[in-house]
């Protein structure tokens, strides 16, 4: 585990999941229903095998994801968000809403259908408060 | 500017501000009312001068912060959030609320008073919707 840098709650949180690759893995689980090492490896950002293994281990050690046996294979594992990991959904939702407000939207046309559907649910439910989204998105 | 990795809005956002140091600079501006290079350099996480210069430039290039002349000195600059940067406050608020729910709170006692006050405002106003927080926190 990395050493925490300060007593600040932001800094301590960022030491757990505050890097691009960790957040992309969390995105994969929430918005793309990915749940295996092989799934994460295939994401378009091209994570390397050593970074992926490192981030999965770190997220597991900090109780953000849990690793379970895969029902179809003894050599594969399933990764799911724990309640602590599900607690990150509001933040991920805000992250998307920021992108939706401030970044060019043209490229979103090319997103996988499953992600488009989940992002649509997220926008429709924004007014009702994103805290209720965890159930709908999981 | 870094090359974007994919068309995904999460990935594109993370390429702009999704690393620990950028987010700590944004924290400094929002919650600690810091606004100069020297202020950021003094934060307890100990950012290095080259990373700080790089992140300030990147955040400015992407329109998250703006660099202005300092009223007191010709050799210093003021950094402030643009509207696009202020748009990150809800996400930062959720990040704090996550930490407040899931991390040990003992260490928060040692935070600077200004940050404690702002975090308190943030928690009190959570029920009214974090989107309204931008004015109160800025």
Structural description of this entry:
The structure is a homodimer of 138-residue chains. The mean pLDDT of chain A is 87. In chain A, a hairpin with a 2-residue loop joins strand 1 (65-70) and strand 2 (73-81). In chain A, strands 1-2 form a two-stranded antiparallel sheet. The two termini of chain A are 28 Å apart. Chain A is mainly alpha-helical and 138 residues long. The first copy, chain A, has helices at 9-17, 20-32, 37-41, 49-61, 83-86, 89-102, 113-124, 133-137, and strands at residues 65-70, 73-81. Chain A has 8 helices and 2 strands; from the N terminus they run H-H-H-H-E-E-H-H-H-H. The interface between A and B is large, with 46 and 46 residues.
What's the helix and strand layout?
The structure is a homodimer of 138-residue chains.
Chain A: H1 9-17, H2 20-32, H3 37-41, H4 49-61, E1 65-70, E2 73-81, H5 83-86, H6 89-102, H7 113-124, H8 133-137
Antiparallel strand pairs in A: 1-2
Number of DSSP-assigned strands of chain A: 2
Q: Which word captures the global form of chain A?
A: globular
* Average pLDDT of chain A: 87
Task: Extract low-pLDDT stretches of chain A.
Answer: none
**Amino-to-carboxy terminus distance of chain A:** 28 Å
What is the string of helix and strand elements of chain A?
Answer: HHHHEEHHHH
Percent in strands of chain A = 5-15%
SSE-based structural type of chain A? mainly alpha
The helix tally of chain A amounts to 8
């Amino acid at each position: 585990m990395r050493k925490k840098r300060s007593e600040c709650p932001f800094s301590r949180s960022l030491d757990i999941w505050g890097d691009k690759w960790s957040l992309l893995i969390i995105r994969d689980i929430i918005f793309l229903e990915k749940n295996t090492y092989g799934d994460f490896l295939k994401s378009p950002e091209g994570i390397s095998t050593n970074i992926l293994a490192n981030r999965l281990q770190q997220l597991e050690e900090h109780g953000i994801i849990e690793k379970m046996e895969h029902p179809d294979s003894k050599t594969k594992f399933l990764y799911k968000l724990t309640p602590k990991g599900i607690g990150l959904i509001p933040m991920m939702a805000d992250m998307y809403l920021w992108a939706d407000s401030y970044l060019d939207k043209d490229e979103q046309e090319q997103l996988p259908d499953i992600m488009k559907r989940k992002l649509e649910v997220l926008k429709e439910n924004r007014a009702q408060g994103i805290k209720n989204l965890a159930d709908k998105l999981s």
